[in-house]
From TrEMBL:
It comes from the Bacteria. It comes from Mycolicibacterium rufum. One of its GO terms (cellular component) is cytoplasm. This is FAD-dependent oxidoreductase. Residues 2-121 form the FAD/NAD(P)-binding domain. PANTHER family: APOPTOSIS-INDUCING FACTOR 1 (PTHR43557), RIESKE DOMAIN-CONTAINING PROTEIN-RELATED (PTHR43557:SF2). Pfam families: Pyr_redox_2. Keywords: FAD, Flavoprotein, Oxidoreductase. One of its GO terms (molecular function) is oxidoreductase activity, acting on NAD(P)H.
Length: 123
């Protein structure tokens, strides 16, 4: 995945990053340093506010914007259509973003259901 992403980023264009967490922030930073236009989309009004808090999440918003990143926070993604190099990202607020590359960094949920009967405390 990372080799293909590297090729796409080096080709330039507009990158849409779905997810404003740590992975999304790293990809965004790298893409901006390579000169790409970047838009970050996250359904939370303040990214990373579930992991950190709204104040620290706000710092990330300010940092992105100071570096020329467009942000669409508070809007989810309904669909990604098109083919590599010519993509459209439809948001829940009706906005459609054009992109040459889309990266989805929305985290993971651990599959710990099988541990419930183990007697271990799961927090």
């Amino acid at each position: 995945d990372c080799l293909r992403l590297r090729e796409d980023l080096l080709a330039g264009g507009h990158l849409v990053v779905i997810g404003g967490g740590f992975i999304g922030a790293e990809v965004t930073s790298t893409a901006r340093s390579l000169g790409l236009e970047v838009t970050v989309v996250d359904p939370l009004p303040v990214p990373m506010s579930r992991v950190l808090n709204t104040e620290i999440g706000g710092w990330f918003v300010d940092l992105h914007r100071r570096h020329g990143v467009r942000t669409r926070f508070g809007a989810g993604v309904e669909a990604v259509d098109g083919e590599s190099g010519d993509l459209r990202v439809s948001l829940t607020d009706g906005t459609v973003l054009e992109a040459s590359t889309v990266v989805v960094g929305i985290g993971a949920v651990p599959n710990d259901g099988w541990l419930k009967s183990s007697g271990l405390v799961i927090d």
